[in-house]
Amino acid sequence: MLENSIKKVLAVSLISLPLTAAADTKLMFTESWRNWHSGTVETELDGGAEIVAYDKMSQKVFVTNSENNTIDVLNSVTGSALSSINLASYWGAPNSVAAYNGMVAVAFEDNTKTNPGRVMFFDADSGDFKQQVTVGALPDMLTFTADGSKVVVANEGEANNGIDPEGSVSIIDLSKGVMSASVETADFSSFNANRAALKASGVRIFDSAASVAQDLEPEYVAISGGKAYVTLQENNALAIVDLATSTVTDVVALGTKDHSLAGNGLDASDKKDEGNIQNYKLQGMYQPDAISAYEVGGKTFVITANEGDSRDEDVRMKDANLDPSVALVEDGRIEISAIDGDTDGDGDIDVPHSYGGRSFSIWDAEGGLVFDSGDALEQLTIDFGTFVENRSDNKGPEPEGVVIGEFNDMILAFIGLERAGGIAVYNVTDPNAPALMDYIVSELDISPEGLEFVSAADSADGKAFLLIASEVSGTTVRYDVTAVPLPASIWFMISAVAGLALKRKRS
């Protein structure tokens, strides 16, 4: 346990990292409030705070609480609990929440998760139920379009008990009002005949799947320019959906990351040489979870948090069926895919593939890689004491969440590291050259899941802020964002002091 004096430093939850000595403006993140959804300070409530949304009309914060089957409603200025929408009386535990102009949309999976799910709409002020629609199986994430005329839903369609429903993307039309909501579904059936070509391009289609449509599993949605960009995490791919026609126009393989290249290293063992980032002959599948989109110079870019995931096909490298020419990575404890990397078709693995990029990436509108952060996130957790050694053999810091925000003429990306617990802040105004701005971490907030950035123009008190919902601790916290013009030397000093205070081991 940390000493009280250090915990006070952690409670302000700020590490400020300098950009360059020439920079004269830095970002300051100041904790405004923290809400413990358990109702008791420092009492963990696993699942008590997962996805967070802000509604600028009601100026309230909405947080999914799957532990209590509620949407917890918070005052955005004070963080105090205002009310809860009891979802158990409607259908069950929520997977996602989004808000727009006084309307709250909540995604629910069926009690039998392979059955179609639902999206329900509630009034943001009263919490009253307004309308519901049926969507695809296991709706995992939803978001409003910028004008609020549609809600786009990623239906994961995950297999269970021998039943494998099709993955799909539901487009809910609200243009005639929520009471007249209608649904169209963009499915993947048109890609069933292209199975061989998709696999050859690098899309992971499992041999056990009856069809391409059943195997593809939409995870997360970002919207830009009339299109939805949908991560297909286990498939290591990106789907592009035309919202005007409600059709999937493309499925793009995201490829792999060469961990043998400088700047692409990783710590490959949970038992040996803690924090030892090295290069290895290993290909990392990006496998993004969250995705966000933004435009620069009239061009769309999407940014992904490359968490990684498997379907129980993972195996420790030392136990895998490796070609004799393949050398073990470290002590062979790193988990690799048992079904990828047989390049010569003889049944053994010639090129080992690990899970997740341990990074964030920026892609163009066609799914072409523009930038990847390499091993910077893992290095960051080592440098500032949030490195998690017992995840080194798996997916490292597990970047899971990402949200974009515009502040002070910059486009900022906030990358949530589920295992390491921190939020890396990057200036991504130039998609080709993102710059690290800050690293935010608190001992009190464990496993950040949902992120939301609110501009000063949309907030109740005229301040820009970042909301973070952390699943294991059951907390939602608000950080106010300000720009501070200070000499770079002062920021170096602040960074050093904060870094010393936060040096610790996480398990």
Helices and strands in order:
Elements: H1 4-12, E1 15-16, E2 26-36, E3 52-55, E4 60-65, E5 70-75, E6 81-86, E7 94-100, E8 103-108, E9 116-123, E10 129-137, E11 139-144, E12 150-155, E13 168-173, E14 182-187, H2 195-201, H3 212-215, E15 218-224, E16 227-232, E17 237-242, E18 247-253, E19 256-258, E20 283-285, E21 291-296, E22 299-305, E23 314-316, E24 335-337, E25 353-355, E26 360-364, E27 369-372, H4 376-383, E28 399-407, E29 410-417, E30 423-427, E31 435-440, E32 448-454, E33 465-470, E34 475-484, H5 488-502
Parallel strand pairs: 20-25
Antiparallel strand pairs: 1-31, 2-34, 3-4, 4-5, 5-6, 7-8, 8-9, 9-10, 11-12, 12-13, 13-14, 15-16, 16-17, 17-18, 19-20, 21-22, 22-26, 23-24, 26-27, 28-29, 29-30, 30-31, 32-33, 33-34
